[in-house]
Amino acid sequence: MDRVESAWPGLVRAVTLLLRSRDDRGRAGAATTLCAVLRTFSRVVGPSLIAAALIVSTWAGASSAALAPLKATKISAADTWLIKALGAEQKVGSVRITGAIKQGKTTMALSLLVNGDGEGGGTFVQNGFKILLKRVGPIIYFNAPTKFWSAHATATQTKEYGGKWIEVSALDTRFQSFDQFLDARDLVAAVFAGHTTPLTLSKRTTLDGHKVIIVSDTVKSKGKTSTGHMYISTSGSPVVLKIEEKTPAQTGLIDFSHYGKPLSITTPPEPINLT
Predict the structure, then answer these.
(1) Per-residue pLDDT band at 127 (split at 50, 70, 90)
(2) Domain containing 102 — which CATH number?
């Protein structure tokens, strides 16, 4: 997938377009609106999470021999390290994911604490709006402030949902791609999903005192260049410590830290059920 043309719309634009295209102002409309906003944010980090899920299901835990027929090319050292990283992310107990993505004058920030089983939560922030997210079991919870709703939704939606937790099923197909964003494996896989040029591997180096190796991808199209770098630990488990991406349309930096045991994720108080 060519990241050079990865100019996804921002949160505000996504909400505005969606509200203009829908006449449904009931609960289903509100759930769809918020889902689209958060799903759009998740797409900024990398290519389609649906594609990422396919990459994970094919690569994670697979051997080099099993992968060779998939692309009919020799598995490189860079490919091998990427496979190791995907396998390591499968075994994660919990990890903190923080970062920021800049598109033009707009900066979007995220801070998540996720378990290896897909449970977790955190915040997404853009233009001063902080949107809270949690997943507990098969349920996803969202909470957007009243000012967010008043700026992008109807007065009825604002009154009913502003500053309140909304509960939806993670099994709902409308929410599946965003739900996958809470899985560190999918986020890692999305970085190089569909790459068409060979990945490269750096010499061993250090990152903030950690021994790492860097897997990189460079794409050139129409005179423009996009780059992606993944820093993988070479000491202990080969987990990902940092992802950097730079395209003509955006730059992104995602940090992975505080790998540890699974954490207990609590259910938000008095959520509004929209399932």
Answers:
(1) confident
(2) 2.50.20.20
